[in-house]
């Protein structure tokens, strides 16, 4: 057993037999920090008033039975900040550990991006752990308010996401555009992380500043597995965002055929209108997405819903056919006229998300 004293007069007993072999000063410090609930970095262990090297082995010190501990304030400077940042960028775990053990501040940043965010984007779970152990702020954002959790979710680093959530990262924190970690994960098609974030009570209906939900983001990117996950968690398939756009409209505009099919099968309203009275058909027609136009028009043929109304006009008096004509979408014009759309003279009028 190793007795460690000095922090607020407390004496902590460490069972050396339970530590990783070879037993090092770093391993002892980790156990002390865990028991006393303090940061490992800035924590110094002393033997006979001599500060012990972090990477020394317990055996090389003569296997002492008693050590003293002191907590030192962080004393980093710009030069050391740069050393830490470069070590993280080079994914040099040992250098990161060494620099932090010298008392370097863990919240330094590169052009406004905290080093924890950098490590999270690069998918470095051990480095992220070192930084958090050194009291890095898990909810500190970069110049765009994007946090370490958002970056890890965006780039698909499951181990980092799990660790940050366990360490208290705020799951519903937003970046400057209102996007959360869940919205980033949905947008990038990270199905497993979408599951994990929902389990961590991420708000599935939370919207960006453009009023886009995770479901809309997944629909626009064509990630059907993510759509399935979100709908299973009871995301509203017919929720309307900015200017009244729905997930089906996002899929139609981005030519995401499979996503549109999946949403229709999941009871998306084929003739749901946006703020200008336009439907998903209008978006698909103007963009020239022939397969999607056919899917929307003939939805009733393979699904338990009626097909899109090809004669529908928006509040400007324009129809899907009018938009297709104006955009020079010849094949779409043929599809719509074959489905019963009438040639007309109407005013133009485009839509917005």
UniProtKB/TrEMBL annotation:
PROSITE patterns in UniProt: ANK_REP_REGION, ANK_REPEAT
Keywords for the protein's UniProt record, in alphabetical order: ANK repeat, Repeat
ANK repeat residue numbers: 111-143, 144-176, 177-209, 276-308, 316-348
InterPro entries: Ankyrin_rpt (IPR002110), Ankyrin_rpt-contain_sf (IPR036770)
Keyword Repeat set for record: yes
Alphabetical list of SMART domains matching this protein: ANK
BP GO annotations: protein K6-linked ubiquitination
Pfam families noted in UniProt: Ank, Ank_2
Annotated GO MF terms: ubiquitin-protein transferase activity
PANTHER family documented for this protein: ANKYRIN REPEAT DOMAIN-CONTAINING PROTEIN 39-RELATED (PTHR24171), BRCA1-ASSOCIATED RING DOMAIN PROTEIN 1 (PTHR24171:SF8)
Protein name, UniProt field: Uncharacterized protein
Species the sequence originates in: Cladocopium goreaui
Lineage start: Eukaryota, Sar, Alveolata, Dinophyceae, Suessiales
């Amino acid at each position: 057993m190793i007795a460690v004293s000095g922090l607020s007069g407390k004496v902590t007993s460490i069972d050396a037999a339970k530590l990783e072999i070879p037993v090092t000063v770093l391993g002892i410090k980790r156990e002390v920090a865990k028991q006393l609930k303090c940061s490992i970095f800035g924590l110094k262990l002393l033997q006979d008033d001599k500060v012990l090297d972090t990477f020394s082995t317990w055996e090389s010190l003569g296997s002492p039975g008693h050590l003293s501990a002191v907590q030192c304030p962080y004393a980093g400077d710009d030069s050391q900040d740069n050393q830490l940042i470069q070590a993280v960028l080079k994914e040099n775990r040992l250098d990161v550990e060494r620099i932090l053990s010298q008392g370097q501040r863990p919240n330094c940043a590169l052009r406004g991006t905290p080093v924890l965010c950098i490590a999270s984007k690069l998918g470095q779970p051990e480095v992220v752990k070192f930084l958090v152990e050194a009291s890095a702020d898990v909810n500190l954002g970069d110049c765009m308010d994007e946090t370490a959790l958002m970056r890890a979710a965006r780039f698909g680093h499951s181990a980092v996401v799990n660790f940050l959530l366990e360490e208290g990262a705020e799951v519903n924190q937003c970046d400057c555009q209102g996007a959360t970690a869940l919205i980033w994960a949905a947008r990038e098609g990270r199905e497993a992380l979408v599951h994990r974030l929902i389990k961590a009570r991420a708000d599935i209906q939370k919207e960006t500043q453009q009023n886009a939900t995770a479901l809309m983001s997944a629909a626009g990117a064509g990630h059907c597995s993510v759509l399935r996950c979100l709908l299973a968690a009871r995301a509203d398939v017919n929720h309307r965002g900015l200017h009244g756009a729905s997930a089906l409209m996002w899929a139609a505009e981005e030519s995401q055929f499979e996503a549109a099919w999946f949403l229709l099968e999941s009871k998306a309203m084929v003739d749901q209108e946006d703020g200008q009275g336009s439907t998903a058909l209008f978006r698909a027609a103007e963009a020239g997405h022939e397969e999607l136009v056919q899917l929307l028009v003939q939805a009733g043929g393979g699904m338990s819903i009626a097909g899109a109304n090809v004669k529908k006009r928006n509040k400007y008096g324009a129809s899907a056919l009018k938009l297709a004509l104006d955009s020079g979408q010849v094949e779409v014009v043929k599809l719509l006229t074959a489905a019963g759309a009438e040639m007309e003279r109407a005013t133009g009028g485009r839509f917005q998300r």
